[in-house]
Amino acid sequence: MTYQPAEDEGLFALPIPEAPPAGPAPAGSPLAVRLRPRSLDEVVGQPHLLRPGAPLRRLLEGGEAASVLLYGPPGTGKTTIARLLAGAGTRRFVALSALSSGVKDLREAIDGARRRRDRRTVLFVDEVHRFSRTQQDALLGAVEDRIVLLVAATTENPSFSVVAPLLSRLLVLKLRPLDGDEVRALLRRAVADPRGLDGAVSLSAEAEDALVRLASGDARSALTALEAGADGVLDTGGTVIDVPAVERAVAEATVRYDRQGDQHHDVVSAFIKSVRGSDPDAALHYLARMLVAGEDPRFIARRLLVHASEDVGLADPTALQAAVAAAQTVDLIGLPEARLALAQATVHLALAPKSNTVIVGIDEAMADVRAGDLGEVPANLRYSRYAGAAELGGATGYRYPHRAPDGVLEQQYPPDALVGKNYYRPTRHGWERTLHERLTELRRTVRGE
After folding, report:
1. Which of 29, 181, 261, 330 lies in disulfide reach of 33, CB 3.0 to 4.6 Å?
2. C-alpha–C-alpha distance, residues 267 and 284, integer Å
3. The three-state (H, E, C) secondary structure of 30-58, written as one string
4. Own/partner pairs, 335-343, CB within 8 angstroms, 24+ separation
5. Distance separating alpha carbons of residues 189 and 238, to the nearest angstrom
6. Residue 228: which H helix or E strand, with range?
7. DSSP string of 1-35?
8. Which residues contact 282 (CB under 8 A, 6 or more apart)?
9. What is the helix (H) or strand (E) element at residue 308, kind and residue range?
């Protein structure tokens, strides 16, 4: 859908179901909409982007600035900043949503900007990560030639969600979650502001602390929870929002976790690194975040399976068994009961001694194979159960280990080019200390060292 202004208008209406860029919010709008900042002075948070002289502030105050990409989690002010841009200076403001716009819409917006080069056009693209590569490529020329000043918004890591040619033309501005003091200031403003609750209720210190904690840095979440608490109190004739009122309004904290997005990768990464770092408490925290957010438990089980061999290996031979058992439990009984097996495996792997010798060994061996370090299989190891094998050198000189008293004897196993190459180098961690001693003796016997 393309949004065209009348000839005497300098502003497009934003294609989102909230208040227009100018004027009060419609009656009955959510608290977060009614309190949307009308000027820079009302913006809470993002001081690193809004300080005097910062690119975003220059853009908002009507000066020249580069095209920008606003990257940050929900509730940090991306849409607010876009709405403020709608009233910045004498610019025309065109807004598109990647959810409903295509290449045709982009081209029409760019053509309109080209026809009106006397006035700079700000093109706001919300959720730009949802555009296909073709749609993103359609922006390149207009951004490069400054036909439009692009302001794109995304909750996804732009390194993965925005094509490199477009990303190189944008100034990436990362919005941060609000800190506790910023959320607290926003809540107090909402209670007192005539556009908000206008003093109809008060907020106890304990309830305020609870709302700050529940918001997890998300301004919209904080205001939504506050409004729900206020509605519940006013419906019963009360005037004070206390902790029970907050708990009744909000069943559990907002879990910022998108199974398809950047938060998914961040939480999974933190989970694995906590297990690898031998911190079971942090590992259980991230496991809980994944489970509460609705992550597929089979995905979690697969990550534990990989970790058991990659980061624990033979330092604890039971680690892989624990991970396999957890994966089987997930398949057999599912959630919620399978959370116990996942937690058990998580703690087991976090507490286990660590060794990456298995993955180092197999990766080095595969690298050598890819590099052509092969050589012929030694004659004594070749297959011999066919007519004429002896004449062709099959299994010539093979020595059967079980005929030796200890089941081990001297014999060449690798190709000539790899004799003496050690791929598996056990650490002194956990069970690998025993394996180190065992392997030293085996190599001495097998290689005749």
Report:
1. 29
2. 12
3. CHHHHCCCCCHHHCCCCHHHHCCCCHHHH
4. 335/291, 335/297, 338/297, 339/291, 339/297, 342/287, 342/291, 342/297, 342/300, 342/301, 342/304, 343/284, 343/287
5. 20
6. helix 219-235
7. ------TT--BPPPSSSS--SSSPPPTT--HHHHT
8. 270, 274
9. none
Q: Which amino acid, 317?
A: P
Rounded to whole angstroms, the Cα distance separating 3 from 183 reads 34
pLDDT in tens, 289-339: 889 888 889 999 999 999 999 999 999 999 999 999 999 999 898 888 999
Rounded to whole angstroms, how far apart are CA atoms 152 and 101?
Answer: 14
> Could you tell me the end-to-end alpha-carbon distance of the chain, in angstroms, rounded to an integer?
77
CB atoms within 10 A of CB 258: 16
Both tokens of residue 99? 């959810």
pLDDT digit string, tens, across residues 388-403:
555 555 557 788 889 8
φ, ψ for residue 241 (rounded to 5)? -85, 115
Contacts of 82 (CB under 8 A, 6+ apart): 14, 70, 95, 124, 126, 151, 153
Task: Compute the distance between CA of residue 410 and CA of residue 229 in angstroms, rounded to an integer.
Answer: 78
Helices (H), 35-179: 47-50, 55-60, 78-86, 103-115, 133-137, 140-144, 158-161, 164-167
CB 202 within 8 A of CB 218: no
Residue 71 host element (H or E): strand 68-71
Candidates 174, 149, 156, 141; CA nearest to 86 is 149
Q: Which of 206, 199, 190 is nearest to 234 (CA)?
A: 199
Torsion sign over Cα 309, 312, 315, 316:
negative
Between CA 111 and CA 113 the distance in angstroms is 5
Tokens of 430: 């956990």
- In the numeric block, the tokens 């209720």 are attached to 201
Do residues 358 and 347 make contact, with C-beta atoms less than 8 angstroms apart? no
Which residue's entry shows tokens 């089941």?
407
Residue 384, token pair as written in the block: 């011999």
Flag whether the pTM goes above 0.70. Answer: no
The tokens describing 51, both together, are 């300080």
